[in-house]
Amino acid sequence: MAKNQFRWDWPTQINRLQVQHHFGLGFLKDMTNLIYLGGVGLGKTHLATALGYTACLQGYAVLFASAIEVINTLAAAKNAGRLKQELKKYTKPALLILDELGYLPIDKSGADLLFQVISLRYEQGSVMITSNRAFKEWPKMFNNDSTLTAAILDRLLHHADTVVIEGKSFRMRGQIEP
Questions:
Q1: Measured between alpha carbons, how far is 178 from 176 in angstroms, rounded to an integer?
Q2: Looking at residue 59, what is its pLDDT?
Q3: Close Cβ partners of 10 (under 8 Å, ≥ 6 residues apart)
Q4: pLDDT, tens digit, for every residue of 13-57?
């Protein structure tokens, strides 16, 4: 799962130099967030995993989880009275990778929990997010709460580098065109 295994020729749009620069890991030293946006099957998770692996090899603590997994884990911890302890798990690593934000709907409670994670990590450590949704669609992801969405985006984008990836799904390459 390395960056040299990525099919740079597949997406119709990706800033290869920008992504390759991320593999230098300077964003971790600067506590910059990375946001990879694009449709399904374009390699966002592949690149996030490769970046996480590269960071681990350099001695950084990394936690990779789907956004919905984080929300479900925190909701269970909240119900069990362990929210504060569970939140620490998401604030400790140098890099928190939240994969697939926007693939499943997030209710008000879930959006609030995710906000807590992002807020606690603000200027404390890098967050990498992969999403299939453009920023203008994020209020829909967060239960149409435009205030909460603005607060999340404000913290994420204050120190962030966004990569937009466009094209057709790599997984569907044999199905799309004969």
A1: 7
A2: 98
A3: 42, 43, 167, 170, 173
A4: 999 999 999 999 999 999 999 999 999 989 999 999 999 999 999
What pTM value is reported for the model?
A: 0.92
H helix count then E strand count, the chain: 9, 5
Q: Are 83 and 117 in contact (CB under 8 A)?
A: no
Q: Provide long-range contacts, Cβ within 8 A and 24+ apart, for 168-171.
A: 168/12, 168/39, 168/41, 169/39, 169/40, 169/41, 169/42, 170/7, 170/10, 170/41, 170/42, 170/43, 171/40, 171/41
Tokens representing 19 are: 């992504």
Q: Which two tokens stand for residue 129?
A: 């997010």
The pair of three-digit structure tokens given for residue 123, joined into one six-digit string: 């200027």
